[in-house]
Amino acid sequence: MDRATFACSTAFFRDFGNSSPGALPGGHVDFIDKADSFTYSDFFRDYLIPNHPCIFSAKFTEDWGSRKNWVTWDGKPNFEHLLQKFGEAVVPVANCDVKEYNSNPKEQLPFKEYVEYWREYIRNGYRSSRGCLYLKDWHLSRAFPEQDVYTTPVYFSSDWLNEYWDAVAVDDFRFVYMGPKGSWTPFHADVFRSYSWSANVCGRKKWLLYPAGQEEFLKDRHGNLPFDVTAPDLRDKRIYPRYSQSQPPLEILQEAGEIVFIPSGWHHQVHNLEDTISINHNWVNGCNVAVMWCFLQDELAAVQREISQWKDPMDDWHLQCQLIMKSCTGIDYKEFYNFLKVIAENRISVLEKGLDEESSSQNNSKAAISTLGMLHAVFDLKRTVKVLSSLSANEDFRKLDLTSLSPSPEALLQHLESAIDTALL
């Protein structure tokens, strides 16, 4: 992060920063062709801050091991290589032909069985009595860390979700998807309203993107989002009374090797137009951590409404609401505090290391912060302070037993503010 971008981001996020643009000016999605003329600061300033999508050309992935080894000479999945490397793995597979709670039901299959199904599906003209099966949300990198699959592009390297979950060694948000032509993912927004990036190793995808806020016009009369935004019944005003007020989706045709950046909070639906393999990360950083926090508050409020009748007779009602929220979203308020703490402590380490190096070379600290890492660390700490202050003042958070949190939220805030002041001297 250069100084100009640091100044721009600090000014943009002077307030809380929990809102996102509701539309993309002109309805145009930029195509980034060459890495040597596109910097991290360019991406941060032009796409992360305004929360706009973009497409990166296949040049950004041409050196990946998966692009070289997982694909045949004619651009198809290299089943033999994949079976050799991952044949004994057990993978999550969704049935695209079945709707279950506004999603597709999943089962666990041996990877070799899924590849056998896929080959037969192709031979039968993309038909099967088992339906259209789609390998989704496979934590391949976690299961096979020794494999040369891909390198995360620098533009997506400020990734708080995976930084935290790697630290606690519980989970991650790095996935591989593999599916035949016709497989698809229903209408949704990503976990915690995070960003996502998705790279096609081979094949083609069609993306239908709706800017944050547009999903409100797509809800039915009961307040439910559609399963499939291409279904004709959306035009029935008796079922979807506000559909006519919605904007047409942004449509992206993603080719082999290309990477699509999906902004925070944008709902989308994705169709595989060919046999396709893709790599996807969900991620949060200083630009959208406030969006994540607002999402968690909305989720808790929904749980509280759902079990409001038990508030008086249940002594630990507030704790039960947290437990239910965590079972639905994967995180509760106390873990969100720990999430912020881990990120903050890591950034303080960056600042302290930089300042130590500067003092040993007898230069002033301002020179240290001019480096990319130092400026980014300060920006991240500023955003963490904003969200942590809101969390600490939150009524539902303060009703929890916080004695197990170390340091206390108040002490952590004081430490962060002191670290920022010292770094900016």
TrEMBL record:
Report which reactions are catalysed by this protein.
L-lysyl-[protein] + 2-oxoglutarate + O2 = 4-hydroxy-L-lysyl-[protein] + succinate + CO2
Q: Which Pfam families match?
A: Cupin_8 (PF13621)
Tell me the cofactors it needs. Fe(2+)
UniProt KW Iron keyword: yes
Q: Which residues form the JmjC domain?
A: 141-300
Q: What protein does this entry describe?
A: 2-oxoglutarate and iron-dependent oxygenase JMJD4
Q: Which CDD domains match?
A: cupin_RmlC-like
One cellular component (GO) term of this entry: cytoplasm
Q: State a single Gene Ontology molecular function.
A: catalytic activity, acting on a protein
Write out the GO biological process terms.
Answer: positive regulation of translational termination
Hey, which family's this protein in?
Answer: Belongs to the JMJD6 family.
Keywords for this protein? Iron, Metal-binding, Oxidoreductase
Transmembrane stretches in the record are none
